[in-house]
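Forgive a beginner's question, but would it be possible to get any protein sequence you like and the C-alpha cells describing how it folds?
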Amino acid sequence: MFESLSGKLSGVFDRLRSRGVLNETDVMEALREIRLALLDADVALPVVRDFIAKVRERAIGQEVIGSVSPGQQVVKIVNDVMVDALGGAGVVPINLNAAAPVPILMVGLQGSGKTTTSGKIALRLLQRQKKKVLLASLDTQRPAAQLQLQQLAERAGVSSLPIIAGQTPLQIAARAMDTGRREVFDVVILDTAGRLAIDATLMDEVKAIRDATQPAETLLVVDAMTGQDAVVTAQAFHEALGITGIVMTRMDGDARGGAALSMRAVTGAPIKLTGSGEKLDALEDFHPERVAGRILGMGDVVGLVERAAETIDEAEAEKLARKMAKGLFDLDDYASQLRQIGKMGSLSSILGMLPGGAKLQQQVGNANLDTKMLKRQAAIISSMTKAERKNPDLLKASRKKRVAAGSGTTVQELNKLLKQFDDMTTMMKRMNKMGQKGLMRQGLSALMPQGRRPF
C-alpha cells in the first residue's frame, strides 16, 4: 500500500546518493520533497511537521555534510525517524497478562473489518499460543452480525457464545465473561457494534462494556484505505476509551499509507497487527522497522523469508529443486511452482518486500503480475493433456486452440506461458552447465535469455 510514497522517496534518495558532496541547501531541498511526499500520502500535517523537524535537526550538521557518504547518512536518519514514528523497533504483542478469561474488546466503525479481525485474532491465538478462545458478538444493531461471528468461529475452530435474542450488548458481555469463567476459557473476544460514523450513543455503549469487563486490551480496528478519516477515528476512540492497540485492515490495498504513519503520533497506542484480505490467516505482526524499510525502498527480506517458511511446502519445494537440477522440469512442475508462489500473496506485495522493490514494481507494472495471472496460467496448464504437460512441443495450432478454449483464455496467453516456461528451462540448463563457481563469477545476467536483462 506504500507504493506511491516509496516511489517518491526513492527518487529523492537516489538524487542525494548521486552527489558526492552535500551542502545545507541540498538537504533542505530534499526535506521539502520528503515533506510533500508525506503530505501527498495522507500523513497528518502535525505528524509531517514533527517528522521533518526531527530529520532536519539531525541532518543539518557536520556529521552528515562532512561525512564520506552524506546521501546515505540522510537516508539512515530518515529511516530512524520513520521507525520511531511507526512505534519504535520491535513488535508489540497482544497483552494476555491478566487473569483468565482475558477479555479483549474490539472497537471500531462499521465496515472497518472488526468482525473478521476478531475471527483472525481468535485463530491466531489458537494456532500460535494454543489458547482456548470464546468469540462473542455484542452487535445487536447490524442484521446477522452475531450469525456472521458464529460462522467465523466455526471456520477458525473456536467457540462462539450462543445467540439469545433480545439481550442488550451489556447483558451479552456479562454472559460472555460468565461463560468464559465457567467453561475455563483462556480468552474472551468481545466484538462490539460499529456505526457508520462516531456518535455519542456508540461511545457510551462501548464505555459501559469496557467498565463492566475491564479488558486487558481495547483494540481499535481501522481501515487503512480511509486515509485521514482513519486518523480522526483513532483519535476519537482513544479520547473516549483509551485504546491500547490498533489493528489496521486492508493493508494490501492501494491506499497512500499515511494513516499508518500517523496512528502512533495521534493516539500514542501502537499498531499491533495488520490484516490483508479476507482469509482468516491473513493477519500479521506489525514490525515498524520492516515497514519503514519497505517505504524507503530497502525491502523486508526477513518478512519475505518468514512468509515463505509459513506458506511453502518444504517437501514439495525440495522435490522441485531436485527435478530442476536434473533438467526434468515440466509444466506440471511449473504449475506446482505457481501454486506455491500464489500462497505467498500477490506478486506485487512480494516485489515490495525486496530491496528496491518500488522500482521493480514500476518496471514490471505493465506485466499484470498478480494472483489472477497465476490462476489463469494454472487453468491453462490444467486444460492440457498429461502428455502435453510432459512435452509442450506437442502443442501445435489445433491443440493450442483447444487448450485456450478449455481454460477460457486466448492462444496469445498460452504462447506467453510457453515462452516463460521455455525461458525458465533455458535458465536452469545454463545454471547446471555453469555450476556454482561459474554462476558466482558471471552473475545473474549470464542466466538470462538472449536480449533480456534481470530487473
